[in-house]
Amino acid sequence: ALKIYKENDGAIYKQIDQIKERLIEGFLASAEKYHVPLTICDAPAMFYTVFGVGLGRIKLTDRHAIDGMDNEFYERFRYHLMEEGVVVMILARWFIGGGHTMEDAEKTIVAFDNAMAKTVAEFPERYK
Question: At CA 30, angle to CA 25 and CA 32, rounded to 5?
């Protein structure tokens, strides 16, 4: 695996970063569309989604920055996301690897938006 990652001056890392950027951009746009506070905690080749806390995109340096996460909303969202064919790691972790494509990212953004719509409909008192 390390040989592949070193090929072409690490080109695969650029691909991973581009896919991650597209996912984050799409997820934040969807959250804004549905008026759901969302924080993206950014790290190399992965990120966390934190619903209920509207900090935008941050580097997580202090766990207190995300106090107030809406776990109930997240669990329902995760369920609907699985209905859409996307499985996200527990604790809202999103990992991007060399096997992912931009097409995968676009399909995931559509699934994210569909799951967001379904979940928001279940919590009309919280997110309008």
Answer: 95
**Contact in structure between 68 and 52 (CB atoms under 8 Å):** yes
Q: Which residues, other chains included, contact 67 with Cβ-Cβ below 8 Å and sequence gap of 6+?
A: 53
Instruction: Name the residue type at position 101.
Output: T
Alpha-helical segments (H) within 34-125: 71-83, 102-122
* Angle (deg, nearest 10), helices 102-122 and 71-83: 130
What is the mean predicted confidence (pLDDT) over 54-73? 82
Tokens of residue 103, six digits: 């097409």
Pairwise CA distance, residues 50 & 65, whole Å: 10
CB 51 within 8 A of CB 38: yes
pTM of the model: 0.90
Query: Which string of DSSP letters, residue by residue, matches 23-50?
Result: HHHHHHHHHHHTT--EEEEEETTEEEEE
